[in-house]
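User: For documentation purposes, I need each entry recorded in a consistent format: the amino acid sequence on its own, followed directly by the corresponding structure tokens. There are two entries in this batch. Please keep commentary to a minimum and don't merge the entries.

Assistant: Recorded as requested. Entry 1:
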Amino acid sequence: MFIKRFSNGVFLILTLFITTECFGQCSAKIQRIEHLFDNLQEYRAQQNQDAEKQVKVFIEGDTNCSYYLQVLSENNQQLLGQYQHIPYFIGNSNSLLSNTSLNNLAISDNSITLRFVIARGVIARAGQYQDTVKLILKNQFNEALDERDYDFDVTIPTHLALSFLGYNSASTSIDLGELIPQKEYSLLPSLLVVANTDIAMTIWSENKGKLVHEFYQNNYSINYSLALAGDYIELHHAMKKSFLFTKQTDFLIPLKIKLAAFSNQAAGQYQDTIRFQISPQVY
């Protein structure tokens, strides 16, 4: 009876020892994170392909064991900025991208390439954005072996463009035809503004809001007003207009001209030059 109990005791001790040793063999740690590729700073909503950042995570461990990386986003896979959040995806070279807050990605040959992707077509305002992802290394027994925080920082630079679109937009000269007192002329091109931030537009007239006779500049002129998107302004001096970014990267600003009342003007050509300039709004 004594011998039987002793044998069972030895069996239990050996079993516990072997199980613990098996688990202990599958230990590993995150060795380093290496930058591979990043074109996020060139991102524009109008581009035809996704933008992404790639990093490679190397681990040090037993190659006979299976490991995977659990990736958790602090901001639920949203890049947080001052004015907006930008959604992004996490994946690797072998898996479908996911925008869930928890990703389990298999590790092969003690390394894994992580992809952080902003999908094309996402409206992104210029500015600084940040998220922190936690990388948790686990083995096939679902044991957490090591972890590392990775700060995911993105700078979206300011992009601005100004052009004419629509009627007679191929030419920088506009012929109003016959000048009639107090007539509104709407057959003008529209301003096409492409911007990913609030903009300040400066408008100034070479002749300070007057159409001036081509030969008798000092004697004959006609006052006029300029409308931007229906809002008339006088151009006696340079004017500034602000346009706020509203998650729309391009918008049209229709132009109109309305002549003031006039009489006894000399026949001939009258002209003026209007200049438009855009810049980021400074606060």
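Entry 2:
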Amino acid sequence: MVDEFNRAQGIDDLFIIGDISYHADDAYPHGCPQLAQVAIQQARTLAKNLNDGEFKTPFRYKDKGSMATVGRNRAVADLNHVQLSGFPAWFCWMFVHLISILGMRNKFTVLINWIWAYFSYPTSLRLLLHPSRYPLRSRWGER
């Protein structure tokens, strides 16, 4: 549990941010969601307060929306005033993640890798599912 300045309750010299913090307020009575955006906003607020030398700016989470991708051209984006799905959401997800990468050279390298992967299908992840309710023990070497 943390207060509005990300201090552990009962300990003034211990600051907690990210997934291990439980920050509840009027907008989020059950705590903020465990997302990277919460941790980023907490870190910025905490850094500002520490640099100022006093704790006068309380943390308030501003929800910028949620995005998820499940594959090529398949994604959802629930932004403040727009809800997208399919290719537009997938493209929006790629754009947001591309602009968050530091350095122009890194952005260009990642973009080229994504373009190459889009057209060449080089994915090495393979998931094998056995659609049986009661799988055969012989598949795992047991008899």
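Summary note for entry 2:
The two ends are 51 Å apart (CA to CA).
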